[in-house]
Automatic annotation (TrEMBL):
Domain HTH tetR-type: 13-73
MF annotations from Gene Ontology: DNA-binding transcription factor activity; transcription cis-regulatory region binding
Keyword Phosphoprotein: no
Keyword Transcription regulation annotated: yes
Name of this protein: TetR family transcriptional regulator
Swiss-Prot/TrEMBL keywords: DNA-binding, Transcription, Transcription regulation
DNA-binding residues (ranges): 36-55
A matching Pfam family: TetR_N
Species assigned in the record: Oerskovia douganii
Xref: PANTHER family: HTH-TYPE TRANSCRIPTIONAL REGULATOR RUTR, MYCOFACTOCIN BIOSYNTHESIS TRANSCRIPTIONAL REGULATOR MFTR-RELATED
Top-level taxon of origin: Bacteria
């Protein structure tokens, strides 16, 4: 008995953002290590193969959006062009603030992401290794502003401190002050660093 070949319909469109939101909810409720990719696929009503096309791993679901934040910083530094110290410090601060400005619908998902990352060392290491930090971007920008071929000790230290303070401020917001404006929290944290940096940026 011959069978009629099945028709190939239009591929089902899967909302990547909704899948990530569902995964984050599962990770938050049950623990990141206790949820499998199969669990996520089942909760989202998608095939396992489809899920892996969207996200290569659970960690990628958690870190989604972090690449865009780094791109925002890169774009802001590039748009500033060449500026001198200490004006460059304010450019850096503004770039981090811009990267921490989230639309209202994304705030809760961002909180969940940050809480999960802060609670899992392997998850933190995954994102740092694959997405990178903003340290190198800031260091290169400030080295140009300082007019030197190589970064000074102060420039390198300041760049690393800004990246660390930005992350620490966002985690603090997610854990301790979720009703505050994350961009404002980051601005407060980096303003203290900028004030300190001015002491070595002004020629003696």
């Amino acid at each position: 008995m011959s069978q009629t070949p099945a028709r190939r319909g239009r591929p089902v469109t899967v909302d990547r953002v909704e899948v990530a939101a569902t995964a984050l909810r599962l990770f938050t409720e049950h623990g990141f290590g206790n949820v499998t990719m199969d669990d996520v696929a089942s909760a989202c009503g998608v095939a396992r193969r489809t899920l892996f096309r969207l996200f290569p791993s659970k960690a990628a679901m958690v870190w989604g959006g972090s690449g865009e934040a780094r791109d925002t910083i890169a774009d802001a530094l590039a748009a500033a062009g060449h500026v001198d110290l200490p004006e460059a410090f304010d450019v850096v601060r503004s770039a981090f603030v811009a990267s921490s400005t989230f639309p209202a619908p994304a705030l809760e998902v961002t909180r969940q992401r940050l809480r999960l990352i802060a609670a899992d060392d392997e998850l933190l290491a995954w994102g740092t290794a694959r997405i990178g930090t903003s340290t190198a971007l800031v260091e290169a920008f400030l080295t140009r502003a300082q007019g030197t071929a190589r970064p000074s000790l102060h420039v390198r230290s300041f760049a690393a401190a800004c990246s660390a303070a930005n992350f620490a401020a966002l985690v603090w917001w997610a854990q301790e002050a979720p009703d505050d404006d994350p961009a404002g929290v980051v601005d407060d944290a980096l303003s203290a660093l900028v004030d300190g940096a001015r002491t070595w940026a002004v020629p003696g």
